[in-house]
Amino acid sequence: MEQISNNQIIKLGVVVDNLEEAFQYYVELFKLDPAKMRAPKPRSPESESSQAAPAPEGGNTPFVWHRGEYRKARCRTAIIPLEPIYLELIEPYDEASPWTEFREKHGPGIHFMTFHIDGFEEHIQLMESKGMPAFFKQEKGKERYAYFDSASKLGTTIEFKEIDKK
């Protein structure tokens, strides 16, 4: 593989300090219908647990891998549809995650841009061959995500998203 299989950006990931507040600003600014968006869920005591995540056992076992460790990398999100792409607003928990790292280093802002791809492992190898290794991978059953250490070369983090076609 010599190039990314798709050159259409589908999503921008935006780290925010307060999810509800940012969500409301987007609703008002663009006169969006909140019923057509995935709105933020309130925090609950159960969601505050920060136990380590188990390593995957193979197949489509859900997992999160961040900087060499399997863990829970949690955040709260809201989806803002702005055609032809969408924004994912992300409020990170105060624990190790790519979103917390970004917020601590840069404050709120655009963290990554996402491309749908086919061939997850091949794309990981491509990016590594270009000097941009993966530092975050997540499996969610039929969906896989990876963030790459691309900011120093491209000005932003690249995220690949693959969805099983079955």
From TrEMBL:
- A Pfam family of this chain: Glyoxalase_4
Record's compositionally biased regions (Low complexity): 47-57
Q: Domain VOC, which positions?
A: 8-163
**What superkingdom heads the lineage?**
Bacteria
Q: Where is this region: Disordered?
A: 37-61
UniProt cross-references to InterPro entries, sorted A to Z: Glyas_Bleomycin-R_OHBP_Dase, VOC_core
Which named protein is this? Answer: VOC domain-containing protein
Please tell me the species this chain comes from.
Paenibacillus agricola
